[in-house]
Structure formats: C-alpha cells, structure tokens
Amino acid sequence: MPAAVVMDKAALPLDGGWGWMVVLGAHISIGFAYATPKALSIFFKEIQGDLMSSYSDIAWISSIMLAVMYAGGPVSSALVNRYGSRPIVMLGGLMCGMSMVTASFGSSIVYLYLCIGVIGGCGLALNLNASLTIISKYFHARRPLANGLAMAGSPVFLCFLAPLNQFLLERFGWRGSLLILGALMLNCCVAGALMRPVLTPTQKKLKEQTNGSTTIKDCHIKNVKQFLDFTFFKDRGFVIYLIGNIMFIFGAYAPIVFLSAYAVSQGVDEYYAAYLLSIMGFVDMFIRPGTGLIANSKWIRPRVQYFFSFAMVFNGICHLLCPLITSYPLLVVYAVFFGVGFGMVFALIFECLMDLMGNQRFPSAVGLVTIIECVPMLLGPPAAGLLVDIYGDYKYLFLMCGGVIVTGGMFLFIMNMYHYHMLRTSADTEETRQNSTVDQGQANVSEVEMQAGPETDPSETKA
Amino acid sequence: MSAPCMHPSCLLLLLLVVCRHAHTNLVSVTENTTVTTEPPVETLSPITPPVAPLTPLQTGQKSVVLTGENHTEKVEVVNPVTLNLECVWTGDNKRLPNITGYWTKDGKTIESSYSNTQLQNDRYYLRKEFSIMSEEDLGTYSCIFGPKAKVDFILAAPYLGEMRDKPIVSYVGDSVVMICKMDEKKSKPINWNWYKHNGTSKEKIEVDSPGHRYKITKDEKKTKLVVHNLTESDSGVYFCGAVYGIGTSMGHMQLRVITYFEPLKPFLGILVEVLVLVAVILLYEKTGSKKENQSGPEGNPDQTSNLSHGENAVADGHSGTARQRKV
User: Fold this and answer.
1) Interface predicted TM-score of the whole assembly (ipTM), two decimals
2) pTM score > 0.80 for this model?
3) Total beta-carbon pairs less than 8 A apart between chain A and chain B
C-alpha cells in the first residue's frame, strides 16, 4: 500500500508545460464537437432546395448529429479507458472528416442522415469524451482554468465556422463546402497528436496484471461493466449532479433556438435579430476562460459546486426576466447576460463532474452523463416550441425555461450543502478511526491532498 | 422588411389604385395618399365598365399630396389601363398665385403637358390622363411644379419576390433547381417563361429541347426550372418572366457550374497541412523522448498496447521525465 502511494505522488499532473498544448488540442476538438452541428444549419436551405425536401426534414441532420454525439458517450468512455485519449481523438477526427466527404456526394436525405448524423456524430462523441478526459489527466491545481479554456472552443469555433461556411457556400455550393469542411475536421487529428498520453505507474502495473491472468469471459464482464457502470447511481454526489444537469439542459437550448424569432415578434428587423445570437456567442467566448480563472481562485475552488449552482440560477433568472423586455437595446442587454450565464455554466459543467468523481472515474461518469443528457436535449426545444404553438406567445417559453433552470440551480445548491454535510460527518468518523493506528504514509497523503485542494479530499478517499 | 414603418412614404408605397366602377373625376385629397374609391382591392381588376362594352379598358386614379420637395410612388400595373395621375402640392413660402407645371416620362418632357396651375384651397394641382396600353408605356412619369417640386410615379408590372443576388453553384453532371416566386399579396401572372442569356440576347427555354434536360413546373405564384446533367456551358444568367396583361416582369439569377477539381484543391491543401502538422508533432515528441532516453533509460518492455504509431520509446521517456520533474 505505501509503495503504490509513493508512486502516485510521483505521477502528479503536470499543471503546465506540455499541458497547455493539450488544452489547445482539447480546445480544437471540443470546438468542432459543439460548433459543427450548429454551423451546418447554414447549408440547410441549399440542401433543401437541391434534394427537394422540407426544412424540418433537413433540420433533423443537426439533431441526429447532436444526439449521436451525446449518446456515444459510454462507448467513447470505454475506448478512452482502454486506449487513452490520443488514438481515440485521431480516430474521431478521421471519422468526422470521412463523414463530411462522403456526405458531399449524397443525393438523398437518408444518406445525409447516415453520413453526417450517425458517422459524424460518432466521430464527435469520440472527440468530446477523450478531450475532457485528458484534461483531467494533465491538470489538477489549474484544472478549472484548463477546462474553461478548452470549453471556450465551442463559441470560438462557432464564430469562426459560421462566416466561413457562408463563404464556402457561395464559392463552392454545398457539396464543395462539405468536402472542404471534412478536410478542416481532419484537424482534430492534429489536436489528437498534441494529446501526449500520460501513463502513471499504477496504470502500468494494472496493464502488467491484466495481460496475463484473466480469462476471456472475465474480460467481457469487465468491459460491459466499464461500458455502463450503473454503480454510479449509488453515488449521492453523482445523482445530485445528474438531476441538476438534466434540468439545466432541458431549458438551456430552447431560448437560443427561439431568440431571434422572439425578437422579430417584438418588431425587430430580422438582420438585427440575428445579431443577438452573435453577441451572445461573442460574450460566451470570453466568459468561459474568465469563469475558469475565477473558479481556480483560492476562495472559489473549494466551493466550485456552489459557484456552478449560482451560475445556473443566474442563467435562469435572465430567462425569467426576458418577457419583460420589448425593445431592441434591452434585448441586446439580455443577450449579453444570457451569454454570461450560459458561458459560466458550460465552463463549469465538466469541471464540477471532475471535482465530484476524481480522475479515475471521470471518463465513465462523463459517458453516462452525456447519454442521459441526450433525452432533455432532444426534448427541450420541441417542448418549448409546443408551448409557443399552444399559447401563441413566447413569454411562456422563457418562463418555463427560466423556471426549470432556476429550480435546477436551487436544487443543486441545497442538495450539495446536504451532501457535503454528510461527507464531513462520515469523514470525521473515519478520521477518528484511523488516527488510532499511527500510519506515517497516510499522514503524508493527507498533506499532499490538502495542498491540492480541500474539497477533493472526500472524493479521493472514496476512490 | 418587418421593421415598423413610421415614415408616411412607407405607407404610400403599399397603396394601389382601386377601381370597381368607371370613375373618372374622383379626387380625394387628404393628408396622405389614399385609395380613391371603396373596397380596397390590391390591383386593377379586369372589370368592363358598363358604358363602353367594346373596350374592356380600365380606368384608375392615383393621387399624391406632396408636402416636401419630392416624392416617389410605385404603381403596379397588371393590365392595360387609363390612368389619371394627380399631384397636389402644398406650396412653398412664396405662395405665388400661378405656377407652371409639366409632366415628364422617363426624364423626357411631354411637350403637350405644360399648364398653368392656380392656387386652389391653398394648394396647387396637376392632373393628366395617361393611356397605359403596353410595355412601352410603363416607366417613370413625373409631375413637376415649376423648378421646385416633383413627384415620380414608377409604373411597372408587379415585381418578383426576393431574388437571389448570389450565383447558384452546382457541379458538372449534377442537377440544379431554380425558383422564381411572386409575392403572395400580388396578383398572379398569366404565364411564366424562362430564358437563358446566350451572350447577345435572351433565348427562350423550351421544355422539349433536345436531350430532355430541362423541366419547367408552373404553379400559380411560383415556377421552377430544373436542369439535369449540367455541363460547364450551362453557366450563365437565367431569366424568369412573369407574364401579365401589360407585359412581362423579369427576374434573373446566375448559375455557375464547376467541376469537382475546384473544391478539391483546398481540400488537398488542408490535407497536406494536417499530415505535416501531425508528423511534426509526433517527430518532435520522438526526438524529445530519445534525448531523455539517452540520459536515463527506464527500460519498461511491455509498453505496446496503449500507443499507436510505434511510440514505445516515448512512454518510457515521458514517465522518466515525470518522475524527474515532480512537484
């Protein structure tokens, strides 16, 4: 036991150096993952005209891509656990590139669903999961900042892909644009190349063990267990996080989808209404690393879960106040605050999971979280759209989304207080038990962990 | 498009003359232009006046009150019509009792139109009747009060809905769909025609031309031209014409047909860039780790499974550096 502890101490995350290149790689990878489904919508009108189908049929391409990206989480986690991040991100990049290139030759809508939606979605799922995992391996003290910088990839790439797609569309039509977009997505392979694997000594020991003894059946059982580890549901912190996140995701995307329509209904010009989303994206770009920086500070880091719930409540209140806004300048203010809230939540969303689960369990946890989040993500905008259709008024949409998000935030806040209280009481009882057996190595470990961050203590003792 | 129109001239643009019966002298002068007769119908509808059954010619009226120095009014004409245009000017500071007014068409003065107008009810009036029979009669008619005030009436067949200003791009061997739409609110055309510009003039596209490459569908307010099996010679400007009683309203769009080689060039460029970057990064890692290996070899034989691209040395070197660089 002490020998393994000493080796773990030796393999502490870098928190810098090559780690920043890894953050760059993750930035690129996550950027493509979140921005591509949204940026593709620029091609839809052209594709719809050429393939002669309705707009809603075409819009399914984005939805399928997002759904597969989230649903592929557990598979991606299992692969990352087995092979590490680098080969997985490179494979993901290849799949995405191939999906776009094959889609450029398509002549039916179902073919596009398969190429872009399924294959592209799988590629993105591999990218997303692996990128998040490698950050947790490279950073500990500066992890919130690294997460914020990596997640900032989403608005940065959207800002960059949207006008680029427009330009490509005008020069090459949608087929040529998809071909070139495929080549651009191959840059995820470059991102993957940056993700140098980190092999800790304990992992090496595990490999030595598994290479020899286990039978094939045991291997399979272990694989299935790694695939969808349902023991996570016994973890109180995980369940709390999951419920709060489901509520957030349900209400998060609908305001984005309907913002310009709402602005137009209030009498704003279509062109200016489209600007609102750009403003939101622009603000988001800077807020994410900023939030990471704040979350890294001495005062916030131990209480990062509370900061997360604050961010959620802030976001929800923004939406609740939106129906009161009817003029364009105030809508711009709303878009700015929306960007702030949205960016804060997304900068912290995976950091909080890492904080709860710790390095070992994070890959599997994030896979499980994304596949469950698939459901509210797909249901949210249509449910909101239904509200608009029934009542003919956008205000109920904002009230519903704001209400759900605020409830989620308050739920997280209260339940986290309860969770930490329970952890403290159980940690106290365990300490009194262990203090009776004087163990020098154990004291060393507690010192090291306290330096890293007091709140990580409970989760690490569990692992 | 959907911004709230606060300016009065905005409202004016949306009004069209209405005439159900043969009124000739109806004048209604109000603060803005108004529709002169009852039930507002958007265009001149072909109704024969009871007095002259032989000439199914309509009469219409358009009146503009000018308070500033000039104003432009768009008038949509669907069928041949006799149009009474009237300009009412509120005058300037001078309030001369008599002013010379005249009419122009497309900038050229109509000789017989000079007249002296007198101040009536504190306003100056200019009226003239125009016979709009065919496409040549359409254009811009202006009434001019002395050298100072001017109202332009732009007479035209209904304009087509929003046309693409950017060229449509398609590929050799592919097919393309070109659409022309008439606004929902405007009247529907009698027919639709498609033309292709062949360097000097417009050439009408027939559906049964050799090769059966063209397909034209005509709905009431929409028309589609489908061209199959594109070749590079199909590039160029295409016109769609909405045929009305008075003439044809044209819209145009440009088609560009390119081969697959055009997007292939940037594609290959980016591919090369990706391969170069990946190679550089991996080589840098390998040379970096080789140096570490030479300084302090770790010797860990079973490092094969986790890494691709034959980087066994890297892992050894890296774990070595991690140990050396701790804290």
Assistant:
1) 0.79
2) no
3) 115
